[in-house]
Write a structure and sequence with these properties.
By secondary structure, the chain is of the alpha/beta class. Among the domains are: 398-525 and 717-724, Substrate Binding Domain Of DNAk, Chain A, domain 1 (Sandwich), CATH 2.60.34.10; 533-704, von Willebrand factor, type A domain (Rossmann fold), CATH 3.40.50.410. The chain is elongated, with a radius of gyration of 34 Å. The two termini are 59 Å apart. Residues 524-530 and 705-729 have low confidence and may be disordered. Bound molecules: adenosine monophosphate.
Length: 729
């Protein structure tokens, strides 16, 4: 049997650790050179691949074939670097790094690595976690679990400092990111993450950038060197910045020398106060996030037991000094910030696996922390290490694109709230209207984050297949279940209400262009939303309609209105009479009785006797702002005077998503009817005594929301028709 290890796959350094059962504590496994951490730098030299310090030295002295910091691009499939015409993705590079760590551990311990826990930043999205797992697989590692870095750090700390109910704030400032996580030690050896927050654009590199500017202004002030005049000055200042920062972690004054062919030589010093002043706002951003996290939990600094510092940038002295000033606690560096994460992962590899929960957030226990018991014996430590059960929370909420309650815009409807303890499963029901067939499809867009659909991370697009139609035309209820597994990876299942099997899902590529979700929902959804039906009926009242034809038309229109009474929701109807003028007989109204009265009030020649006008402008104005499906039904006999103008006006309706059905009889022009209608199939040519029947059919088809007869596909975009049930009722 081999060993189980914890691996911190860091942006700048990586480390491996194992639980030493004799000592009862996790210990770092140094590499073959005796180093406890290995720089995450790779150099390709012909067929040789060099990893670690040698590659880092080569990188710093500008040798070719070197690459580093690839973790920052984890999850992207793009080629991160090309060496000797071979492209390497972040996954491939991370796999090389992980394989190196595995090989080193096996060489040093003489044992095979059986299983590993690999750490990831708490803020990692699904695709970054998935890429990490892929890299581990490529490296030949069996991964028991991914664990969030702050949780791992708290685990390492807890072995020696277990105090039930203690609340530990893990302040993690790395090279490119900042995270703060609140963790509580609970009875039964549980370490529970309560909440996590972060700024993923804030890290050591921002301090470096400030120092770069400081060095540049000193060069100008002290030696008259400007970046405009000497372009190499900027790169030289940038290279010096990190070393100045590191010097200032132990000294009050850092000295630096810059040289290049461009500007010659420049020597200066930077004091700690200058550095602190130039970077204070960055530091302040971190404590503001800490305070926001506390206030979201209704806690204050006094409710915190300890602050644990993790991440290379916490070595800057300003971090502990300012945290102490704000919080009153002296931050702990009990565990080496470079090693804590790997040590915690080595404990996690032995932890029991928790069960799925239903979207519960980490709960705060208000008991006072028990007293720290002082030195802990080996046996107790081992017992602690083996029985600690860490629980992570998900940093990001998970939701689906849906239509807002007022039907006007797209929203990100949360299904799993952020900070739910993982693993977690949550479901939400949505209703939508299917086509008439029994194999309706629906598209769902899965989002991570709580912002609008366009601002959130789209992590998946699926087509749900085989949704059954309700014969009574009721909306179909579909339940979407999202889950985060222990690795923080997401999963989706969809089930139709009343059925006992999951629906088939086909994963589609996530579209690059999501801009349609920035449009008002009605624009994209008008053709597919039956929740609200809006119909304007326009009837020809020219002289040729006198007598029997108009009587039949009015009868047919009233019949149509009666049919709408069975339609779900509150249909709205408007009436227009057209001849030489277009007259609005009744504006859109949901009072169907009133509508019938308006229809019956239509008189022969009320708008003239000839066919000089068309009703499309009125139809468009009446339906333009209506929410839901919008129809114009135009009944005409004869030929209109300005048919091209009428066709243009009808097309404007089509473009707005207003469907036009043209019904003609008598001497009506068949081609013209087709031109004004939304589709060929939507124009009808009927006999005068068939009008009632025709209107009945139209009402039925509109009422059934069936795209079948109206020439539409049976596939609709889920987002265009979904409403969360809670939203609309
Ligand atoms: P990490 O991502 O946790 O490996 O942290 C890397 C960051 O820590 C980089 O920005 C480093 O410049 C910074 N760092 C490492 N050592 C020190 C130090 N002694 N003083 C200040 N910053 C440091």
């Amino acid at each position: 049997m081999g060993i189980k290890i914890g691996i911190d796959l860091g942006t700048t350094f990586s480390a491996a650790a194992v639980l030493d059962k004799r000592k009862g504590i996790p210990v770092i496994i140094p590499n073959r050179d005796g180093e406890r951490i290995t720089p995450s730098v790779i150099q390709f030299q012909g067929k040789n691949v060099i990893v670690g310090s040698e590659a880092k030295d080569a990188y710093e002295s500008g040798e070719s074939g070197c690459t580093s910091a690839f973790k920052r691009s984890m999850g992207s499939d793009e080629v991160y670097c090309t060496i000797d015409s071979v492209g390497y993705t972040p996954v491939k590079l991370s796999a090389i790094m992980l394989r190196h760590i595995k090989n080193e551990v096996e060489a040093v311990t003489g044992e095979t690595v059986d299983e590993a826990v690999v750490t990831v930043p708490a803020y990692f999205y699904h695709k970054e976690r998935s890429a990490t797992l892929d890299a581990a697989r490529l490296a030949g590692l069996k991964v028991k679990q991914l664990i969030n870095e702050p949780t791992a750090a708290a685990l390492a700390y807890s072995i020696d400092h277990w105090r039930e109910n203690a609340r530990i704030m893990v302040y993690d400032l790395g090279g490119g990111t900042f995270d703060v996580t609140l963790i509580q030690m609970k009875s039964g050896g549980k370490i529970e993450s309560l909440r996590t927050k972060g700024d993923h654009t804030l890290g050591g590199k921002d301090w470096d950038a400030r120092l770069t500017s400081l060095i540049e202004s000193k060069a100008e002030f002290e030696a008259g060197l400007t970046v405009n005049e000497y372009p190499q000055l900027h790169n030289a200042a940038m290279r010096a910045a990190e070393s100045v920062k590191k010097q200032l972690s132990t000294k009050n004054i850092a000295s630096l020398r810059l040289s290049s062919e461009d500007f010659g030589k420049f020597k200066t010093e930077i004091g700690i106060d200058e550095f602190n002043k130039a970077t204070f706002d960055l530091l302040k951003r971190t404590t503001t996030l800490c305070e926001q996290l506390l206030s979201e939990l209704n806690l204050s600094w006094n409710d915190i037991t300890d602050i644990l510092l993790v991440g290379g940038s916490t070595r800057m002295r300003q971090v502990s000094a300012f945290l102490k000033e704000r919080s009153g606690h002296t931050p702990l560096m009990h565990v080496n910030p470079d090693e804590a994460v790997a040590l915690g992962a080595a404990i996690c590899v032995w932890s029991p696996q928790p069960e799925y929960n239903k979207g519960v957030a980490g709960s705060i226990s208000h008991e006072n922390p028990s007293k720290h018991t002082g030195r802990v014996g080996t046996e107790t430590k081992l017992h602690n290490a083996l029985s600690i059960m860490p629980s992570d929370v998900c940093a990001h909420a998970m939701g689906v694109i849906a239509v807002s309650a007022d039907g006007k815009k797209y929203i990100n409807k949360t299904i799993v709230p952020a900070n739910s303890i993982i693993p977690v499963k949550c479901a939400e029901s949505f209703h939508y209207y299917t086509g008439e067939k029994d194999d309706n499809e629906l598209e769902i867009y899965m989002l991570q984050g709580e912002k609008t659909p366009l601002e959130s991370e789209v992590i998946g697009k699926y087509t749900v297949c085989g949704i059954k139609h309700d014969p009574k035309n009721n909306p179909t209820v579909v339940s979407i279940q999202y889950s985060y597994d222990l690795n923080g990876m997401v999963h989706v299942q969809v089930r139709q209400q009343g059925k006992n099997a999951d629906l088939k899902l086909i994963e589609d590529p996530v579209p690059k262009d999501m801009s349609k979700f920035s449009l008002p929902a009605e624009k994209v959804t008008a053709s597919a939303q039956p929740q609200q039906l809006n119909v304007v009926m326009a009837v020809d009242v020219s002289g040729s309609m006198n007598g029997y034809p108009l009587k039949e038309a009015k009868k047919a229109m009233c019949h149509f209105v009666d049919k709408l009474r069975n339609y779900p929701g509150t249909p709205q109807v408007g009436v227009v009479a057209v001849s030489d003028r277009s007259i609005v007989v009744m504006k859109l109204d949901s009072d169907l009785n009133k509508c019938k009265i308006a229809i019956n009030s239509i008189e022969e020649e009320m708008a003239g006797i000839l066919n000089g006008a068309d009703p499309f402008e009125d139809i468009r104005r009446m339906l333009r702002n209506a929410v839901g499906r919008r129809w114009g039904i135009v009944l005409a006999d004869g030929r209109w005077d300005d048919q091209p103008k009428a066709v243009r006006a009808a097309k404007m309706c089509h473009e707005l998503g207003i469907d036009i059905v043209g019904i003609g009889f008598g001497t009506a022009d068949e081609k013209f009817l087709k031109d004004i209608s939304s589709g060929e199939i939507e124009s009808m040519f009927v006999g005068c005594n068939e009008l009632v029947e025709s209107f009945g059919k139209i009402a039925q088809e509109i009422g059934e929301t069936s795209p079948k007869r109206l020439g539409r596909s049976n596939k609709v975009t889920a987002v265009s028709t979904w409403r969360a049930i809670g939203e609309t009722q």
